[in-house]
Design brief:
Number of strands: 0
Largest sheet: none
Order of helices and strands: HHHHHHH
Number of helices: 7
Distance between the termini: 62 Å
Shape: flat
Length: 153
């Protein structure tokens, strides 16, 4: 019987100490309170939205109860909560997502692509993503540089 050779993967917990164990609930609770203040809702309104009683909501804010994926989904879709900030404690993000009606921001898009590539574990996957992006970028440049009206002939 042949065995599949496994690749070494670093499975160590890379979260900062402030997000490990019970500390995670406290951070998420603090950010939940920040979100509540930002949208100017009462504890009763927040508890009703999340489908819990006010005492349970208070325990979430105090970090005694964890936010479930279902509750995070409710906050994301109903209040535009930014989950990077809410559970990742990424202070570079506002607690609310901003709906942009402006033009496409190329710089932000490129930054997101670069971060995605950098966060890929496998060298092969990174190389594949880079080659794909070069290919797609080339297609975009070729499309933009084509003579006007060429498709009409």
């Amino acid at each position: 019987m042949a065995y599949k050779r496994s690749k070494h993967r670093d499975t160590s917990d890379k979260r900062p100490e402030s997000l490990k164990g019970k500390k995670f609930n406290k951070v998420a609770g603090t950010n939940l309170k920040t979100l509540q203040d930002k949208v100017e809702w009462t504890n009763v309104q927040m508890a009703t939205l999340l489908g819990v009683g006010t005492s349970s909501y208070d325990r979430m804010v105090n970090g005694e109860i964890a936010l479930s994926p279902e509750k995070l989904s409710i906050l994301y879709y109903n209040l535009n909560a930014d989950l990077h900030r809410l559970i990742g404690n990424d202070n570079n993000c506002d607690v609310l997502r901003h709906e942009t009606e402006s033009e496409f921001d190329f710089g932000t898009a490129i930054s997101s692509i670069i971060m995605d590539i950098q966060n890929t574990d496998s060298y092969d996957e990174r190389a594949e993503k880079i080659l794909y992006m070069y290919s797609e970028f080339g297609k975009m440049i070729a499309y933009l540089m084509r003579p006007e009206g060429r498709d009409k002939k």
